[in-house]
Each structure stands twice: as structure tokens, then as C-alpha cells.
């Protein structure tokens, strides 16, 4: 609380101090991918009862279906419109799309 009061006293709000710095933000798409990777790890854990593992697979399947239909499709639209505008985390849409592709494809 005191740090907030110090910001206000100096005429700077906490939001102004971090809003322009991309390293303070987590990419929403990467966060969704990481969550689903954790869910898949639980589904792969043999110590987890079988029906729970099936439930985790169902959750992951539903989440990834929505992710690609909504989030990735939105990125593809931005790329098609040649939107080079950086997202709040400092990535261009084509950079985010490329990283999503790398994170979601299995390397064989």
C-alpha cells in the first residue's frame, strides 16, 4: 500500500510505470497453450484415475478447439490485413503465430 501512495505522491500512477514495458505482460495465447500442456501432463500421469485422465483429455480437446477457432483465427486475420501493430507484450501477429505453431506442433 505504501508503494502505491509513493507513486501517487510523486504524481505517477502505478499503471503508467509498467503499461509500456512488454516484459511485464504475458502473452494470452502462450498462457493458454501452457495451461493445456499442464492439463495434458495430468492426463498422461498413470497415478491419476482413468476417468479423471479422460476428463482432462476432454477439457484439453475443448480448450484447444476453441483456441484455434478463435485466437489463432484472429491472428491469421491480423496477418492477412498486414497489421504490423505490436501487441501489448511486444510481438507482431506473425511472430505470435510462428511461436504458437512451434509450441503446438510435435517435433518428430
UniProtKB/TrEMBL annotation:
Keywords for this protein: Kinase, Transferase
Heme found in the keyword field: no
Gene Ontology MF terms: polyphosphate kinase activity
Pfam family membership, one: PP_kinase_N
Keyword S-adenosyl-L-methionine annotated: no
GO BP term, pick one: polyphosphate biosynthetic process
Domain spans labelled Polyphosphate kinase N-terminal: 25-105
Domain of life: Bacteria
GO CC annotations on file: polyphosphate kinase complex
Transmembrane segments: none
Official protein name in the record: Polyphosphate kinase
Source organism: Legionella parisiensis
Lineage: Bacteria, Pseudomonadati, Pseudomonadota, Gammaproteobacteria, Legionellales
